[in-house]
Write a structure and sequence with these properties.
- This protein has about 350 residues and is of the alpha/beta class.
- It has a single domain, classed as Alpha-Beta Complex (Spore Coat Polysaccharide Biosynthesis Protein SpsA, Chain A), CATH 3.90.550.
- The chain has a 9-stranded mixed beta sheet with strand order 2-5-4-3-6-9-8-11-14, with helices on both faces. Strands 7-13-12 form a 3-stranded mixed beta sheet, with helices on one face. A two-stranded antiparallel sheet has the order 1-10.
- α5 links the parallel β4 and β5.
- The longest helix is centred in the N-terminal third of the chain and has 20 residues.
């Protein structure tokens, strides 16, 4: 065997070895994609007045992910019904049959579990996101927006309600636009082999939360189906980056999506979504301090700043005139095909 063939075999061996070590295939098969159509635990259709919020969580009934669900139910999730929002915790199938029975019991109590027929795994998040998009198309097509979020965030329900009611959310995808180098470190959580993604950098929306206007949902799903490349297992990169670019779906950048865990009242009052604390007890403390405090000075300062901005000739906040809604601005990203 010549040296060139030996080198090819060596590279193939290393590639297979890495896949075995980290348990990843980096992309999903057509058979796996078909599982996104199979609902195990279903819920009722959305009302036309509701905004569905799909919350990614894990198929466990104890520990941090269960505690995060309970924290949401006790805090901003409790506000959801008042503000015409619909919470749905999205999960896969656990490998333990006892857990499956416990999840069904949890669903019977709270009526907010949406389960699909793929194995619960971190690298199946793309399947989870596609599943909820398909479910929303079938069961929530009469609503104007949908929200995807993680279970370790704190959401501002009054702000979301006002944005929805006043139709202040632009068409396309809205969230925090991120630009990062493509990760080529073998073994890293977000490693992406060059053979599946050739560019040196990504532009996408931070996966902890983003909004999608329903007028783009059908086109978004069609783009996922027709995209000729691999279905990658990093969900935010693939869906809000690669697929959005391929389908020319706008990414709208908003500074109201924040990485934040703390007790600054004005940050909490003027943010829509905060990617908060990994410990659910700290997230609950954030929420309760915020709701039990007087945040009037935050609004007063915002109004003052808007007046100063207008006097300087800046009109970027004019659409909020005569509104008590904290400032919420967007910058559309022009997408092009890869």
């Amino acid at each position: 065997m010549d040296s060139s063939n030996s080198w090819i075999l060596f590279v193939l061996f290393i590639t297979v070895l890495h896949c075995q070590v980290d348990g990843r295939n980096y992309r999903h098969t057509k058979e796996e994609l078909a599982l996104t159509n199979q609902v195990v635990i279903n819920q009722r259709d959305c009302l036309s007045t509701e905004t569905p919020i799909f919350i990614h969580t894990a198929a466990v009934t104890s520990g941090k992910y269960f505690e995060r669900r309970m924290t949401i139910r006790r805090t901003w999730g409790r506000e959801a019904k008042k503000y015409k929002m619909r919470l749905l915790f999205v999960i896969g199938v656990p490998r333990n049959l006892i857990l499956e029975r416990q999840l069904k019991a949890e669903s019977d109590i709270y009526g907010d579990i949406l389960q699909f027929n793929f194995i619960e795994d971190y690298y199946n998040l793309t399947l989870k996101a596609i599943s909820e998009l398909k479910w929303a198309y079938r069961h929530c097509s009469n609503t104007r927006y949908m929200v995807k979020t993680d279970d370790d965030v704190v959401m501002n329900m009054p702000m979301l309600y006002q944005l929805v009611q006043r139709k202040k959310i632009p068409s396309g995808l809205t969230g925090l636009v991120m630009t990062t180098p493509a990760n080529r470190e073998v073994g890293h959580k977000w490693y992406m082999p060059h053979r599946y993604y050739h560019r040196d950098s990504y532009e996408f929306l931070a996966g902890f939360s983003y909004l999608l206007s329903m007028d783009r949902l059908k086109h978004f799903l069609k783009t996922i189906i027709t995209y000729p490349g691999p279905i990658l297992d990093i969900d935010d990169l693939f869906l809000t980056g690669i697929v959005a670019d391929y389908g020319r779906i706008k990414r709208n950048n908003s500074f109201r999506f924040k990485f934040f865990c703390g007790l600054d009242l004005c940050t909490m009052e003027t943010s829509l979504v905060m990617h908060a604390c990994s410990d659910s007890r700290n997230s609950e403390t954030m929420y309760r301090v915020w709701k039990q405090s007087d945040t009037g000075t935050c609004h007063a300062n915002l109004r003052l700043n808007r007046n100063r901005a207008r006097r300087r000739g800046r009109r970027d906040l004019d659409h909020l005139e005569n509104s008590d809604l904290p400032g919420f601005s967007f910058v559309s990203q022009t997408n092009s095909k890869p």
